[in-house]
Amino acid sequence: MDRPADDGAPLKLREKAYDSFTQHLLARNVRPGQFISQRELVALTDLPLGAIRELIPRLEAEGLIKTVPQRGMQVAHLDLNLIRDAFQFRLFMERGAMDLFVQSASDETLAALRRQHEDVLARAEAEGDTPEIVAEGQAVDWGFHDMLIDALGNEIIAKAYRVNSIKIRLIRQELVRIDGLVAPVMREHLGIIAAMETRDPQQAVAALSAHIDNARNRALGLR
Q1: How far apart are alpha carbons 24 and 16 in whole angstroms?
Q2: How many domains does the chain have?
């Protein structure tokens, strides 16, 4: 008897469609507030219409698109409420993660983090914010925060954080690019790392909170 088709194939297509859409969103091929049709999503992702139709409820549930009566689907609009909500969610998640991470991370992990940030900072101070340094600084910045959450080993938290992270990164792409900020951001991170090296959760959480507050204020145009 012939084997049935791979039961995981539809799921893989949905995940592929989701990954493709979010990548295009962060690459600014799709812009916040833009109206987009199912057919345009098919063309954008190069995936079948069935996968796109199954993708849409997930994007709506995660707040990445919404259906506007008489107009169709609209990509998330970067308004004041989204910025405040996304950063508040991030703050709550990362504070808890930091409290645990600072007590469990090895000395080698903290030393590696310090070296990584000091290297990017030295290059930014010597060469300025070249495209290569901006890209590396952005990757180090995001990687640092993702690591805090990943260290929890909690898939539910990680998935929720990743959805919010897409919104945070979208806000940064549109409103607060790291261009011109590589050195200041690396210095802020090094301040957090110094607090982590004390192994005092309260001190580390306070440094992290100040850093996230600064990022939120930049997004709100407050500094």
Answers
A1: 12
A2: 2
